[in-house]
Amino acid sequence: MKSLDSHIESVLWTSDEITSRVSELATEISADLSHLSEPPVLVGVATGAFLFLADLARHVHLPVAVDIIRAESYGSGTESNGSPKISFDLKLDVTGRHVVLVEDIVDTGSTISRLIAHLESKGASSVSVCTFLDKPSRRKVHFKLLGNGKFYRGFECPDYFVVGYGMDFAELYRNLPYVGVLKPERYKCQSP
Ligand code: 5GP
Ligand code: MG
Ligand code: MG
């Protein structure tokens, strides 16, 4: 097997850039949520947000609960099928709680919109979204945050299909510590 780095055409954000931006986001979120009487719930969207959730959570200096939800809209390709389904639900009761949805990337907006509606139906009092990357140029669904929720994003992403820092192509590359674009031949070839 070739090394992981040899599959990458270009790096968009290095590991050091990610570390410093994630810590800034955590500081901002901590300041914004310090007035709450009950600890907020950080909800990571599996699988793509697993590294971001772990890094963000350890820099938030408030008591928080942590949970995971899974929404699936992608096959193994690079285009969403547009109708995300919740295939693994929360363990915690979020009734009356402030939830921060922690996502890898908001692209068309359909996944985040579906998740906000789901949290509303579960009785969350407000929902913020903290996405590591945001691709506003690709937005199709204009979602509304719940209550006094805020939208946080790490970086604005150009219209490339990116991998790394949790994000996959065909379930590979999630373990890259940086974000990059694959060499074009990797999109055709699924063998390591
Ligand atoms: P949306 O529903 O906003 O179109 O897309 C949501 C999900 O699609 C993201 O949470 C992510 O899992 C996946 N996705 C969107 N753009 C990219 C991308 O550039 N790279 C990867 N690996 N996944 C993406
Ligand atoms: Mg995601
Ligand atoms: Mg994926």
TrEMBL record:
Its EC number is 2.4.2.8. Pathway: Purine metabolism; IMP biosynthesis via salvage pathway; IMP from hypoxanthine: step 1/1. Its cofactor is Mg(2+). It catalyses: IMP + diphosphate = hypoxanthine + 5-phospho-alpha-D-ribose 1-diphosphate. GO terms for biological process: GMP salvage; guanine salvage; hypoxanthine metabolic process; IMP salvage; purine ribonucleoside salvage. Residues 16-169 form the Phosphoribosyltransferase domain. GO terms for molecular function: hypoxanthine phosphoribosyltransferase activity; magnesium ion binding; nucleotide binding. Keywords: Cytoplasm, Glycosyltransferase, Magnesium, Metal-binding, Nucleotide-binding, Purine salvage, Transferase. PANTHER family: HYPOXANTHINE PHOSPHORIBOSYLTRANSFERASE, HYPOXANTHINE-GUANINE PHOSPHORIBOSYLTRANSFERASE. This is Hypoxanthine phosphoribosyltransferase. It comes from Rubus argutus.
